[in-house]
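Hello forum,

I keep getting stuck at the same step: I have a sequence, I want structure tokens, and every attempt I make locally crashes halfway through. Rather than fight my setup again tonight, could one of you with a working pipeline run this one for me? It's a single chain of 532 residues.
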Amino acid sequence: MIKIADIRKHAARWPQRVAVVDGETRMTWASLADKVSRVACAIQDLLPETRPARAVFLAENSWELVVSMAAVSSLGIPCVGLDYTAGPVATSAALDQLEPTVVITSKAHRGLVEECGWPNGRDILDIFIDSEPAGLPDGQTVSVSFTDLLVSAPGEPQPVEQPFEAFSFTSGTSGVPKMVVRRTSFEARRFADLVDQYAFDEEDVHLVTVPLYHASGPGWARIFLTLGGTVVLGPHDDAGELIRIIQDEGVSTTLMVPPVLARVVAHPNSEHLHKTSRLHFVLSGGRHLNRWVINNAWDRLGPVLHLYYGTTETGVNVMIGPEELHVAPCRSGRPMPGNTVVVLDADNRPLPKGSRGRVAIASYQLMDSYATSEPDFMTLDYGGRTQRFLLTGDSGLVDEAGRLELTGRNDGVAKAEAGKPLDVNIFGLEADLMDLPCVRETAVLRTSLPGAGEVLVVPFTPVAPERQESGYRAVSAACARRVPCLPAYVVPVESIPYSPTGKVRAAQLLESVLPLLDLRPAESREPEPAGV
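Reply #2:
Ran it on my machine without issues. Output:
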């Protein structure tokens, strides 16, 4: 998050300009500078002597959280948020990896932290962001409310003396979240690249729609705060309110994960945003966007939609703009400056364009390590130079125009066995299914089932109840045509569950549909749709 020095610079230049909007709260640069100074100095006085100092938060988006993040950043303390929807096992694992000295919680998620055994008398500073500490002092833990920090005297916060570190957590889709560690900062270079390429400036108003615990939230907000622009906090689950904010606040840039973007461009109130808003840059992150979302975004928002792909471990690596999205809707983009993307075979040799394999990335944004394991790095002579690549868990191909197309998620590409393909284009199948007029949304899950072996489980939501049967048949036919090597179990569902950061809750979805599947051999199954 932005630091006090930059905040004061903007406050001196335009003290009454709005810096942060959160509902009815409109915080000017002068007010933000005053609050961050007070909170940072108070934290400095209460900070445990344990080093390295590290901060963590479990709290929903709010202006109080923005101030808290800016305060600890001003003290040189790395600050990372945890996914408060992940549950106690994942949360406990993340806390144990980070070993924070400052814990910031909101009332809504305080119970989760305590369920994980924190703070439990540890030598930490325990900040209650929207409530008062309850009970007597607990061991060495110092508990304080954000309100008390805010009424402290302002001053000149002094950064703690410790080496630079930055942390983030993977989503934990393949197990518990892994803590990603970086020991050098790449922010200045990425900031310069993005500002130069997309002409961002201090007149921009940026709408935050993702939780600030997701790296993309504070990462993109920091760009516009550093420029002296305005950041508006919006709800990820209310498309109508997001549209109102875009119009009323003069929003010019935003990042929306694909499910949120889809809901916004499907909402009737978004029909004329291309004429009634200041939007000039809308970003969505992920593997690909389906053609319906791309076309609707163009019609309703204008030619402003960009898609990027990156990972927690590699940063922001490829980007594609609105014009190319129309001609190549399944692509994730071209490498950005300072990034190299290569696709490898099962023996980690580079593949020619158009061949599917494991995606590896070289970048100035690469992680240094995980907290508890070693990353899968390799050194490769590619593009006329020797580069250090991280082998990702994604598979895909690079097309003839140099654009990356992601095709699936793997724990590394395995060699083909018993006629099975090296890689199945799961994402391409999803895109084909979303082009069917009877399908509202779908997720293709590749898994192993007892007695059936490796299969595809394909939940889909029909556009209307009366289209369920025709949708079942159309989806089944598309799966058989696109991926004939794997049996597909198709089941209609009421909805596809997503996290606030736009990821399909695959485990939850699979658990809910397994009882609906007919697992008899294909020749003995009736060609009727499973029930919702």
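The longest helix spans residues 29-46. If your local run keeps crashing, start a new thread with the error log.
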